[in-house]
Amino acid sequence: IASKMVSYMIPKLLFSGGMAGIASWIVTYPADVIKSRLQADGVGRVNQYSSIADCVRQSVRKEGYMVFTRGLTSTVLRAFPVNAATFATVTLVLMYARGEDLSPLIVKF
C-alpha cells in the first residue's frame, strides 16, 4: 500500500504546485498591475501618478475595474506548468537530501 501511495505522489505534487501558482497569481495580480504601472511611470517624462492610491484611482477611472485582470489569463496559463514543475522538483530534491527512499518513483525502461 505504501508504494502505491508513493506512485501517485508525482502527479499530486504537480497538481498541487500548479494550483498553488494559479491561486497566488489570482490573489496578487491586481497589486502586480499597480506595481508595474508605478515602475513604468515617469520614464522619459513627468510622473503621471503621485501615489499608489492615485495610480489605483486613475487606472479605475480611465479603464474600469477590469484593468486589474487584463493579462491574467496568459499569466495563469504560464503559472500552472512553472509552479507545478518547481514544486515537484523542490519536494523531490528535499526528499533525496533527507535520504528518503525514492525508488518507487523511478521509472524503469
From TrEMBL:
Q: Which domain of life is it from?
A: Eukaryota
Q: Where does the record place a coiled coil?
A: none
Solcar repeat residue numbers: 11-96
Query: What molecular function terms (GO) are annotated for this protein?
Result: high-affinity L-arginine transmembrane transporter activity
> Gene3D superfamilies from the xrefs?
Mitochondrial carrier domain
InterPro entries, alphabetically? MCP_dom_sf, MCP_transmembrane, Mitochondrial_Carrier
Q: Where in the cell is it found?
A: Mitochondrion membrane
Membrane protein topology class:
Multi-pass membrane protein
Q: Which PROSITE patterns does this entry report, sorted A to Z?
A: SOLCAR (PS50920)
Membrane-traversing stretches:
12-31, 76-97
Q: Name one GO biological process term.
A: mitochondrial L-ornithine transmembrane transport
**GO cellular component terms attached to this protein's record:** mitochondrial membrane
Alphabetized UniProt keyword annotations = Membrane, Mitochondrion, Repeat, Transmembrane, Transmembrane helix, Transport
Its family remark reads: Belongs to the mitochondrial carrier (TC 2.A.29) family.
Name of the protein described by the UniProt record = Uncharacterized protein
Q: Which organism is it from?
A: Xiphophorus couchianus
Q: What does UniProt list as this organism's lineage?
A: Eukaryota, Metazoa, Chordata, Craniata, Vertebrata
